Amino acid sequence: MTMMVNGVCYHVEQYGEGEPLLLLHGFTGSADTWRPLAPFWPDFRVMAVDLLGHGRTEAPKDARRYRIEHEAADLAALLDEWGVEQVNVLGYSMGGRLALAFAVWHPRRVRRLVLESSSPGLETEEERRARREADEALARKIETEGVRAFVDDWEKIPLFATQQTLPDPVRAAIRRERLRHTATGLANSLRGMGTGVQPSFWERLGELAMPVLLVCGERDEKFCRIAAQMHERLPNSELICVKGAGHAIHVEQPGIFAKIVSEFMTKGEV
Ligand SMILES: C=C(O[C@H]1C=C[C@H](C(=O)CCC(=O)O)[C@@H](C(=O)O)[C@@H]1O)C(=O)O
């Protein structure tokens, strides 16, 4: 379904009943990324969103509209429309950066937080500037060479090396999902929502009182390192490193990932 919030149209999907679970995909993903996990989560009311510039959600021409503070405000408005006061939030990669921002800015609305292969941003302005420059170059490449050429390169970056050995139908589904987006949507998502654009939340991790589950893939050294550093600063967190998995654990080992999330979501319930 389509929902208009703060002047933009979002594609959102809702299925299941029970504990509310807001799902936020990564860069080049969509709400569809979570569909294979639905059978594992019958007791959750799943709310999956196509983020700005992705899937069937609007791709504003002004990159500033994609900024993380605006997308976090959009999430709050979507929850208001749904009449959901407090929600469990699961974010993967870029979606995890947004999930963390939402938890920092709206702590009372987040019951539990799951961050898969994500980060609180970059700590220094020097790192952020270098990343903005790299993401601007990538955005221009998407606009000049097109989404297909971008996806051909993107699926080969070292971060996704572990996806090369996935079954062909799984790889084909990831590729189809990546090819669905527009050049404007992906380019402006990088410009507005990229890792170098958002503020660093490293110094605010200590504020988060809600339970936080950090999940990373054993073969994704960079984001396992980041997760371990976040774990040291978060007051109420647990860290699970999934053996043999890479960056996209929910794609590579959906059953294990779904079980980890279910156990975290129902922990402490009698
Ligand atoms: C390559 C790096 O960062 C990019 C990779 C992961 C993030 C993501 O959402 C990718 C999801 C996917 O394609 O499966 C993405 C982001 O957080 O915006 C980054 O651009 C890196 O080494 O940091």
Q: How would you describe what is shown here?
A:
- This protein has 270 residues and is an alpha/beta fold.
- The chain has one domain: Rossmann fold (3-Layer(aba) Sandwich), CATH 3.40.50.1820.
- It is 40% helix and 18% strand.
- It has an eight-stranded mixed beta sheet with strand order 1-2-4-3-5-6-7-8, with helices on both faces.
- It is globular.
- The model has no long low-confidence stretch (mean pLDDT 97).
- The structure holds ligand LVPVRBMU.
- Residues 26-28, 93-94, 97, 157, 159, 194-195, 222, 248 line the site of ligand LVPVRBMU.
- Ligand LVPVRBMU is lined by residues 26-28, 93-94, 97, 157, 159, 194-195, 222, 248.
- Pfam families: Abhydrolase_1.
- One of its GO terms (biological process) is menaquinone biosynthetic process.
- Monomer.
User: What's the CATH H-level homologous superfamily?
Assistant: Alpha/Beta hydrolase fold, catalytic domain
- The succession of helices and strands, N to C, reads EEEEHEHEHHHHEHEHH
| SS content category | alpha/beta
Proportion of helical residues: 40-55%
Q: What's the number of extended β-strand segments?
A: 8
Number of domains: 1
Overall pLDDT, averaged?
97
Sheet with the most strands, sense and barrel status? 8 strands, mixed
CATH class: Alpha Beta
CATH architecture: 3-Layer(aba) Sandwich
**Unreliable residue runs:** none
